[in-house]
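I hope you will forgive my troubling you with a question about protein structure. Could you please explain, in whatever detail you think fit, how the C-alpha cells follow from the sequence? Thank you for your consideration; the sequence and its C-alpha cells are set out here.
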Amino acid sequence: MKMITGIYNTSVDEKGRILLPSRMRSALMSQELVALPGLDENHLMLMTPSYFEDRFSQAVLSSDTAMFDKGKRSLIRKLIAPAVYIELDASGRVNIPLSLREKYSILNKTDVALVGTGFSIEVWNKEIFDRAEEEDTTSLSDLAEKLRED
C-alpha cells in the first residue's frame, strides 16, 4: 500500500455517499475499506481491512488476557465494535452507514474534509476540521521534536 496523502474537500451526496479522490483510491489499492471512529473522537477513519486487522489485532487483541483488562474492553467497545466493512462502488464512492456518520456530524449534503494520514483517511465534517486546525497551535518543529523523543 502506498502512503495516503493530501487534504481534499468534498461533500456527502443526498444518498449518503462520499466520492474518494482518485489519488486516495489508487493509494488504498483495495475496493473494500473499514470505517471506524477516529482516535481523536471528532472524525471517522477509513482504512484497508488488512491494515485494520493487522494493527488493531496486535494493539488490542494481542494477548489471551485482553478480555480481562478493563481498558482494553472499553477500547474494543468504542473502536472495534462500531467498525464496519464497506465497499467502494464503481464510481469510487463509499457509503458509510448513517449510524456511524451521525455521531461526527457527517450528514447528507454536508461538506467534508478527507485527510490522508499515511495509512488511513480521516473523514471530518469540514467545519469541525477547520475549527480543529485553527485551534491546534502546535508548531511543526515541536511535533518533529516530539517524534525524536519517542
